[in-house]
């Protein structure tokens, strides 16, 4: 098993790492697998996706670069920045920009313009822990729709291997912990940009499988300030379930 830090020498093996670092402290917004100019119906019109991806994500990365240049964080990858700045009041801005950028990328990379039906193995695993796939969707939807303020709704795997739904607020995410473990990447042919996340974890952390951006700016353009329910319905029609499957079942296929 490899820690997040030990993955650095393997960067060249990654097809599209979560954040490409061509120079120290320079993080870049990576391309999506679909056209941001065309939008992503039904969840994002071109205008909405332009706001969430081209504007908001770029602003987060630009500001993160400003905050970390010529600091002890300028040579760190995004995971190390989040860990090093977590719960440190003097580094709150660094953590918020790094974590929010990671969350937003994880979310956008899990969407697809083409339907990606859920595999039976994943559906069965979800049904094991929620009773049925439909019960899971209802549970997730309730968490998202009742989240007060800005934040994220996640499907995660806990340290016991059980699937759970959790909300995080503002830029919070489930991967921040002192120690994380990940499957040896030497035995994985490809890891996509949104899949460079821990498979196994302990000390109370969770492995994220799926997330939904519940910041108001993500849905207000297309669905209005009271459009949470329609936005969530559109989300279910836009999930790339192959991505979710690969995150959960990657260790069983090597």
Automatic annotation (TrEMBL):
It is an enzyme of class 1 (oxidoreductase). It comes from Basidiobolus ranarum. Residues 27-112 form the Manganese/iron superoxide dismutase N-terminal domain. It comes from the Eukaryota. The keyword Cell inner membrane does not apply. SUPFAM superfamilies: Fe,Mn superoxide dismutase (SOD), C-terminal domain (SSF54719), Fe,Mn superoxide dismutase (SOD), N-terminal domain (SSF46609). Residues 120-178, 199-246 form the Manganese/iron superoxide dismutase C-terminal domain. InterPro entries: Mn/Fe_SOD, Mn/Fe_SOD_C, Mn/Fe_SOD_N, Mn/Fe_SOD_N_sf, SOD_C_sf. Pfam families: Sod_Fe_C, Sod_Fe_N. Its EC number is 1.15.1.1. The keyword Metal-binding applies. Keywords: Metal-binding, Oxidoreductase. Destroys radicals which are normally produced within the cells and which are toxic to biological systems. Belongs to the iron/manganese superoxide dismutase family. Gene3D superfamilies: Fe,Mn superoxide dismutase (SOD) domain, Iron/manganese superoxide dismutase, C-terminal domain. It catalyses: 2 superoxide + 2 H(+) = H2O2 + O2. PANTHER family: 37S RIBOSOMAL PROTEIN S26, MITOCHONDRIAL, SMALL RIBOSOMAL SUBUNIT PROTEIN MS42. This is Superoxide dismutase.
């Amino acid at each position: 098993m490899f820690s997040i830090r030990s993955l650095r020498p393997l960067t060249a093996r990654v097809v599209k790492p979560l954040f490409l670092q061509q120079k120290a402290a320079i993080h870049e917004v990576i391309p999506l697998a679909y056209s941001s100019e065309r939008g992503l119906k039904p969840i994002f019109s071109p205008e909405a996706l332009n706001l969430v991806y081209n504007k908001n994500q770029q602003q987060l990365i630009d500001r993160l670069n400003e905050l970390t240049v010529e600091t002890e964080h300028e040579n760190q990858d995004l995971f190390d920045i989040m860990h090093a700045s977590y719960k440190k009041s003097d580094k709150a801005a660094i953590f918020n920009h790094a974590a929010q950028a990671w969350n937003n990328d994880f979310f956008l990379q899990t969407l697809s313009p083409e339907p990606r039906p859920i595999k039976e193995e994943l559906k069965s695993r979800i049904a094991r822990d929620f009773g049925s796939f439909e019960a899971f969707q209802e549970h997730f939807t309730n968490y998202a729709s009742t989240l007060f303020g800005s934040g994220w709704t996640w499907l995660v795997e806990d340290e016991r291997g059980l699937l759970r739904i959790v909300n995080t607020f503002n830029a919070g995410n489930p991967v921040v912990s002192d120690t994380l473990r990940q499957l040896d990447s030497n035995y994985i042919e490809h890891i996509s940009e949104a899949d460079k996340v821990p498979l196994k974890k302990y000390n109370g952390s969770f492995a994220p499988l799926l997330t939904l951006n519940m910041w108001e700016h993500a849905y207000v353009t297309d669905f209005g300030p009271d459009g949470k329910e329609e936005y969530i319905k559109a989300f279910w029609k836009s999930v790339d379930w192959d991505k979710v499957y690969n995150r959960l079942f990657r260790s069983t296929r090597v």
